[in-house]
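A note on notation is needed here, since sequence and fold are reported together in a single record. The reader may check this reading against the record printed directly beneath this paragraph.
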Amino acid sequence: MSTVLTVVTLAATVSSAHAAPEPTPVRYTGGPYVAMGDSRASGGFFTPTPDYFLGCKRSAFNYPTVLAVMTLPRHFVDTSCAGAQAPHLYRTAQRTNAGVKPPQLHLVPRDAQVITVSIGGNDMRWGAILSRCNTAPLNDRRCRHNPQLEQEVRWRIARMENRVTPALRAIRKKAPRAQIIVVGIGGFMGNHGCWPMVPVSDPDVRWMNRVFDRAGDALRRATTKVDGTFVDANRRSAGHDPCNLINPWYESSLSNGSIAYPYHINQAGAIAIASMVNAAIRR
């Protein structure tokens, strides 16, 4: 009996050793590119195009479109939609002012070679944190020293990570050979405030910047679990926050929501993010 057991064990070991390896992301050769995510991907800045008015505020020159021009895929699909949360990527329909949108994963082809994902901001609801730090000129809300707010930050970042992780896993399951590139959040808080564009004290701006660093680290962890690539937009946008009056990549708090969303990527930012992602694609 022991001899039979040994033979069976050896056979199983040999079979396992010669089993086909798990599929890994392929190098980009011009195959299908799919953009997924929320308003960071859809653009959020006004363009008189149907996609902008069909509920998702999808700008004609958002970073996925710019990236498609850079990469020239054989097939480009933009599923991004303003207001999306992680569940809207893979299992929950999204209600918009122009109707209900199916989960974005439905439009992802199995043979996708590159998938960009911008998600997490609405799951984290960073605006609820930032609004607690807004202040009048020369005042200081001292958010950085608020233990209750710090506890809330931890909770919100953990919640975001716990929601984004299964979404990325679902994307990986649908497109097993794709390069999944996740673009981080943040970038619009620099080293100092500039009332009224960024009505936050200098120390609290720096604290808020570190909050986005921590959120980015959480997104990086989720990305690693699906063999993806993380683009740290917050750290790599240093110096291009709305207080930079010459070359900002982000709108200020004064931005009119009907023209561009406050604290969202502008046209220069779309080009910058597209360039970051393009450099991250393996060819």
In short: The two ends are 53 Å apart (CA to CA). The longest helix spans residues 147-174.
